[in-house]
Every structure is written in structure tokens, then in C-alpha cells.
Predict the 3D structure of the following.
Amino acid sequence: MAIRTLVSHIREQQSDAYNPKFKATLEEEIRTMRNKMEQLVQVENSFTSDVVIQLSMQLDEKINLYNAYIRNNKNL
């Protein structure tokens, strides 16, 4: 997800009230991506294969989105 898309997505979420379902969905997506990355590391036998790095970057973006969502909704 490009930074612009990420910022746009966060702004959309800011316009809504705190949404526990959105938070839960992000948490589940992060869990799923982490599990998949762990499996890929085992299959690829490498932390630096292209496919592992690509998934790791996607996971980073998802975690950044989650953290931004939490930060923007911490007072609710």
C-alpha cells in the first residue's frame, strides 16, 4: 500500500467514530500475515528471500495503519 493510500485510508477512518470491528479486522489481518510470513521463512529457509521481504513490507504497512488508527482513536 502506497503512503498516499495509507494516509487516505487513515483519514477515512478518522471521519468515523471509533470502530472496534475495524480494529479487530486489522488485528486479525496482522496475525494472519505474521503466520504466513513465518511459514514462508520456513519454506524459503531464508529471511531475505524476495517473497519474505515483500510480505514483511506489507506487514509493516498494516502495522503502521493499525498504530495510526490506535493513536488517532486513543481518546475515544
About this structure: The first helix runs from residue 3 to 15. The chain has a mean pLDDT of 84. The chain is about 80% helix and 0% strand. The two ends are 27 Å apart (CA to CA).
